[in-house]
Amino acid sequence: MARAALRGRLMAAMPWRRAVVLARRPETATAATLLLHVDGGGSSVAGQRVEVRLTAEDGYSADREYSLARTGDADRAEITVQAIEGGEVSPFLVDEIEVGSELALRGPIGGWFVWRPEQTEPVLLVAGGSGIVPLMAMVRARRAADSRAPFRLVYSVRSRAELFYRSELRAPDPGVDVTTVYTREAPEGSRRPAGRLTVADVNTGGWPPDFAPTCYVCGPTGFVETVADILVALGHDPRRVRTERFGPTGDG
């Protein structure tokens, strides 16, 4: 309760800023990336998120939080949104919002689930579905900073059709190793049959515990809890396992 109250006070102190949609780019059939120009925007760190507010003509408003997909430009914000079936906000952002539309934004939010360029230790990223978004921001921040910190990404997704950032993740990126695990439908010729992420997947695609990597895990609550348990069982220091989770709200 105390933590929730503190967060509420901190959020209330953050100003809402005007944001304008500069571009909307499809990622999958049900997800899109929005590039926003933000008035008076400030710096952000890979792994942080922002709160977005949409307001209807009758004054009704709805707020949702989304992870930043990219950091760097102070007056720009980039988010990737997965449409939730029956949702109130996400389907509109994915399918209907037009370039030039205005919304309100505040943030960035968060200081624990972040990666900074001064970090030099190995990094393990484990993503479940749209949990790839803040982890992709970390991959991009590493590249922009010309960091030599070695990254490994294990990306669990239902099928190839649901991959975010497909072409970018397929492009060679020295120092970033990507392992994709398909849980429902594996591509033809895949050596691994479709199935849920396993201990073997995390062990093979990740770093040995004695390398002392910092591990970032993001995805649905059940996925995050399972992966965190796997990492600890494999011998990773729980203090070096950072998690960010989300769950269905029914009104996303």
From TrEMBL:
Keyword annotations of the record: 2Fe-2S, Iron, Iron-sulfur, Metal-binding
Cofactor(s) the record lists: FAD
One term of GO molecular function: 2 iron, 2 sulfur cluster binding
Lineage: Bacteria, Bacillati, Actinomycetota, Actinomycetes, Propionibacteriales
Iron listed as a keyword: yes
FAD-binding FR-type domain: residues covered: 14-115
Source taxon at top rank: Bacteria
Signal peptide (from-to): none
Pfam families membership: FAD_binding_6 (PF00970), NAD_binding_1 (PF00175)
SUPFAM superfamilies xrefs: Ferredoxin reductase-like, C-terminal NADP-linked domain, Riboflavin synthase domain-like
Name of this protein: Oxidoreductase
Gene3D superfamilies from the UniProt entry: Nucleotide-binding domain of ferredoxin-NADP reductase (FNR) module (3.40.50.80), Translation factors (2.40.30.10)
InterPro entries: Cbr1-like_FAD-bd_dom (IPR008333), FAD-bd_FR_type (IPR017927), FNR_nucleotide-bd (IPR039261), MRET (IPR050415), OxRdtase_FAD/NAD-bd (IPR001433), Riboflavin_synthase-like_b-brl (IPR017938)
